[in-house]
Each structure stands twice: as structure tokens, then as C-alpha cells.
Amino acid sequence: MADSTAAPRNWPTQAIPAAYLTPGTGSFADFLRRAEPQLLPGNGVAVGHLAGANPSLHAAPAVDFPHGTTVVALTTADGVVMAGDRRATQGNVIAQRDIEKVFVADSHSVVGIAGAAGLAVELVRMFRLELEHYEKIEGVRLSLDGKANRLASMIRGNLGAALQGMAVVPIFAGVDLNVPEPAKSGRIYSYDVTGGRYEEHDYYGIGSGSIFAKSALKKRFRPGLAPDEAVRTAIEALYDAADDDTATGGPDLTRKIFPVIVSVNAVGATRWSDDAVGQIAEQVIAGRMENPGG
Question: Which stretches are tagged as propeptide in the UniProt entry (predicted)?
Fold first, then answer.
């Protein structure tokens, strides 16, 4: 029989890497950068070797990766709405018809992605974990500006992959709970591949179809849109983008595949159901049957 009076076992803490025992900041990405850098998005694959190229040369890879487009965001009477189409392309082929490009980041923010789909999805997962980790460690939530800055830092960390053709360009939006007027609380942030962060006003779009989507929003947007009006405006913009951009997919009534829509206000972030989005998409398509130009 074991001696119940024996001293408790001393676990071999010296076997644990020092990075796991060293107090750090509230950033999970910084912790991974020190402890397990290979787990960061874009650090697990040597793209240059995959492409048969010299990794020291910043040339685009010779292989095609699935890319996702198009995402739009616009402010509303009480916050913001973000919408993304569902198509991913790989060269001239439709790689996926129902990919999701818009995600709830936390209770009061939303993030959308364009670019190399696999890396973009991993970046979003890491960003959501980053926000959750910070809140657990620090005991408070990041401000909306703080969240936008954290995302910019993570994009900057992907610069090496971006220079080899695997760029990720997100769009971030949410409500600033410190602004007392709901109509002015919605904020939209765009980024470039170097991690540059820019605040946009009223509306914005990313992806290959964004030039067409933003042209549609330019004509249809007006300040103080109700959430359902903003959703219809976003779907109209995606429809116009899909009409001219082969990499953007419009509402698919045959397969019941509709844009992903997330609205955010002071109460929280809400993903719209496929049924609710489908009803509005059917109205948009019915209107285009009568007036194809919108």
C-alpha cells in the first residue's frame, strides 16, 4: 500500500518551456510568437518551397489557393451591418459555393475576410481567441479602437506570406459603447496587407467585387438606415458585385445559399438566419426581374 503520509509529488516544472511560466501581456498572439511561433497563421507553411521558388525572393506562388470575396459593411441607425457573399475561387474554378467570410468577433464587433481563404479563416480564429484571452487576463474588454489595433498587429505578422501571394485583407466593424448616440456609434475599419488601419465612414467594401459593391452603396446608402433596410442595401450591393465580378457569388435560390449577414448594436452582435436573409434576397431578385439595373 502507498504511504498516505508521503509528500506530494513535485512536478518537473523544469521540463516546461520557460515561455509558459513567464508572465506576459494580455496578448495571446504575443505569447504564441514567443512560445510556439509555428502555430501563428502563415507560419506553418513555407510557401516559397511549395511553389518551387526561392523563399528569399518575394515572388507569387505558382499554385492557386482558394480566395474569398466580396464583403461590405455599412452603418445603421443603431450600429453597423456587415454582409459577405459565399463564393471562393481558385483560379478560374469555383472552389466553394458556401464559404463563410463574415464572423462575429465578440459581443459587439464583427470581422469579414478577403484574400487567401485558409489563412484568413485562421486569422479570424486567432483574433477571436485574442479578444477572449485579453478579457480573461486583464479582467476588462478592449475598446473598439483597441480591437482594431490588435487586428492590425496580427495582419502585420502575416506580411511574409502576403509578399509571397497569400495576402489576407479583413474588414472590421462594431459599435463604440462610449458613444451615447446610437446613430453615431457604428464604426468601420479597413486594412492593407502591411497592417495599416484606416477608419471608414458610412460604408466600405473589400475583395475583387468591392469596386462594384461600393458603387452600388454610393447610390443606395443614406444615414440612419434601419437594420432591415441596411441588410437589403448590402444584398443589393453584393448582387451588383456578382453581376460584374466572376469571383463574387450572388444569392443562390436554387441551392438556398444566401449572403452571411451580421448586425451589431449596443445590445450585441446578431447573425441573421438564412430564412430571414433569404426572404430579403428573394425580394431583391424579384425587383431585378423588373429592373435588371436596380
Answer: 1-68
How many CB atoms lie under 10 A from the CB of residue 57?
9
CA–CA dist 20, 108 (Å, integer): 31
* CATH H-level superfamily of 65-290: Aminohydrolase, N-terminal nucleophile (Ntn) domain (3.60.20.10)
**Catalytic residue status for 89:** no
pLDDT tens sequence across 162-195: 888 788 999 999 999 999 999 999 999 999 999 9
Q: Where are the domains of the chain?
A: 65-290
- In the set 69, 76, 233, 248, the catalytic residue is 69
Phi, psi (deg, nearest 5) at residue 129: -65, -35
Contact predicate 172/189, CB 8 Å? yes
Calculate helix-pair angle for 144-156, 117-138, nearest 10 degrees.
Answer: 130
Rounded-to-5 percentages of helix, strand, coil across the chain: 40, 25, 40
Q: What is residue 143's DSSP assignment?
A: P
Average pLDDT, the chain: 85
d(CA 206, CA 117): 14
